[in-house]
Known about the structure:
The protein is α+β, with helices and mostly antiparallel strands and 225 residues long. Helix content is 33%, strand content 32%. The protein has 6 helices and 17 strands. Helix 5 (182-201) packs antiparallel against helix 6 (206-222). The protein is globular.
Amino acid sequence: MAQHFIHIPSLLKPDELKEIDEILARAKFVDGKTSATLGAQIVKNNLQLDDESDELAAIRSILARALKTSPLFGIAALPKTIHPFLVSKYTAGNVYGWHVDSPLMGEPPMRTDLAMTVFLTSPDDYQGGELLIHTDAGTSMFKPAKGDAVLYSCQYIHAVNEVTNGTRLAAVTWIQSNVKNPEQRQILFQLNQIHALLFNREPTAPETTLLLQTHANLFRMWSDA
């Protein structure tokens, strides 16, 4: 069975977080329902950064650079297309109830295989506000460190618990992977991790090269690029 979510620690470095904090301090937020569709509009109660603002463009640029330099994101998502980030804000009383993301987003439309939440606030700065993901294994709860990210499959319903005190800020995006099937993505992810271990021990060993060849051939077979 495919892994439902992957925690990416320190996706954003301290200098990037400081820059984002300075941008958010002067940013204008609007009603978050403007980006919701269908049933999500009913259960969404938060704010989001104005989509046309210079502040959002600046934060998107920082996040795009962070994704490009994150090996863990690259091997886990195998990204083909990344939707522009949204930045959301939750204060006391804000909540995002159980919902499912749209299967297609953007223009031209991209398939949403994965979603990712990047946490922009320290967990000590707000109460509640946990990201909830419900899978066939049960409900998992996430409230990681500032700058961390959680990558998760869009096929499952998810929610954000009500914030009861403080402010929760987060950036959210969606990814179309080069490999549509989540089980195949998981196999490629595991093979990549094993190859990294072998490479650190014996970079020129025949089995190291063979595993890399196997990974490449499976990626080529399964890719819809």
